[in-house]
Amino acid sequence: MLTGALGLIGFIYWFFLGKRDEAGEITTNVKVKVAGGYSPALVRIPAGKEVTITLTRTDPTDCLEEFTIPDLKIKKSLPMGEEVVLKLKISKRGEYPWHCGMNMYHGKLIAV
Ligand SMILES: [Cu+2]
């Protein structure tokens, strides 16, 4: 009974802190690895500041070559093994999802 309660508390703790960790710190310079998805897939950035995002694709999957953030009208081609630098400034707070060419792998920019 007590074990169960502790387990639940542990789960809640993990769930909320885990979610926060997943989003990471607010950064103006982030490197995203593109391989079987995006790592990190959640990037928190400050609104109104210039931000540098460096994408490196090491996965031969064709559709990962295309990187797009529709709400920002950004579309980039990611050649294998090359760093592609994206500089952007988002003035409006909010969430800006990105995805691959076929919309199967996803990530998100969160401007705070
Ligand atoms: Cu895809």
What would a concise description of this structure say?
20% of the residues lie in helices and 43% in strands.
Question: Helical stretch count?
Answer: 1
Encode the helix/strand succession as letters.
HEEEEEEEEE
Identify the bound ligands.
copper (II) ion
Span between N and C termini?
Answer: 41 Å
Dominant shape: globular
CATH superfamily: Cupredoxins -  blue copper proteins
Strand order of the largest sheet: 3-9-8-5-6
Q: Structural class of the helix and strand makeup? A: alpha+beta
CATH topology: Immunoglobulin-like
Q: Got a strand count? A: 9
CATH architecture: Sandwich
> What's the average pLDDT?
88
Q: What percent of residues are in strands?
A: 35-45%
Explain this structure.
The protein is of the alpha+beta class. It has one helix at 2-23, and strands at residues 29-34, 38-39, 42-45, 50-57, 66-69, 74-77, 83-89, 94-100, 106-111. The strands form two sheets. Strands 3-9-8-5-6 form a five-stranded mixed β-sheet, with no helix packed on it. Strands 2-1-4-7 form a four-stranded mixed β-sheet, with no helix packed on it. The longest helix has 22 residues, at 2-23. Copper (II) ion is lined by residues 63, 100-102, 104-105.
